[in-house]
Amino acid sequence: MKKRWISITSMVTVCVSLLLPFSIYGADGTEIVLESKSAVLMDQDTGEVMFAKNEHDSMPLASVTKIMTMLLAYEAEAKGQFGWEDIVTVSEHAAGMGGSQVYLEAGEQQTAHDMMKCIAIASANDAAVAMAEFVAGSEEAFVVQMNERARELGMEDTQFVNACGLDADGHYSSAYDIALMSRELMSNFPEIQEFTTTWQDTIVHSTKRGDEEFGLTNTNKLIQWYPDTTGLKTGSTGNALYCFSGTAERDDMRLIATIMAAPDYKIRFEEAMTLLDYGFNNFVVEKGYEIGRNMGYVSVEKGSLDEVEAVVAEEISVLLPKGETGEWETKIDLLPVAKAPIQKDAKIGELIYLLNGEEVGRSDLIAAKEVAKASLQEILEKMLVNWC
Predict the structure, then answer these.
(1) Choosing a second label site near 148 at 20 to 30 A (CA), which of 26, 65, 246, 358?
(2) CA–CA separation, 190 and 183 (whole Å)
(3) 91 classed as catalytic
């Protein structure tokens, strides 16, 4: 057993007191104080919170809103609702957004791919609303989807009113909720890093004046300032001040640092880097057995096979303070017998992880292949073999 593992669900029982400090300390032991009103540092793999300051305070989130807009767009494409080369036509409503934009004109057409590029890199309000209308038919219908998805993710401090993040009454979120939707987007659609790690790019406006190249520069300064950056999204308005959800990866650890209401645009990045450094310097993610690993066999009753392989369904993870030691164990709990027919991926057992005798997580063990019910001829042949 490699010493790389643990559970997403049960880690709180192991070291919750270590993972929820109200303040953090640098390598020299001095306390690190954040000027931002609210902040969260979350491990992307486990969802564990490593630092939190006013994490459930609801407040305006500006263009960080677009994380949910991008998440819904990626989910819609994954469901086959559209393709990235499909054409999006800009409405009068989308073209009139103002604020951060790429100056799309009403009637202008761009591919869905390039619309997402404008949203992720340049934080374009016009592209965000155009994409929302393309996915849901109208911005209003898209906002309904945004709020429904927020509830599904457990974002209890959030309400969306628009798809781009312009200041509006009743449009708010919290640092914790932003981390939740950031985790969902980065975990399920890592391909977004095509955009979120790009510093500069271009699109071509096809307008009445002809084709015009338009430059895009990423609003996320961490791309240049922090070598391990993978994303994600900035935001700033008069009400929200300066917000940021920053993501980074180092040594198989993926972290999310969320900053809300920073007093200036540099401080949001500096404090995000402080949080990321704290996480990378003080914690490690251990992983369990890989998906598909054989953990034993289950006997099959009246099946075309006598037994079926039990394999790991998911590779679980846990966040631990660096230097944490203990005695690790695994227990395998398999069904004594399974009755045919058995579907591929049917649960036939559990793999249980223990630290110092305490359960810290588990993964389902599933059937590696389908096992059909034995035919009469197969049953007779087996009986003959056993008789002989």
Answers:
(1) 246
(2) 10
(3) no
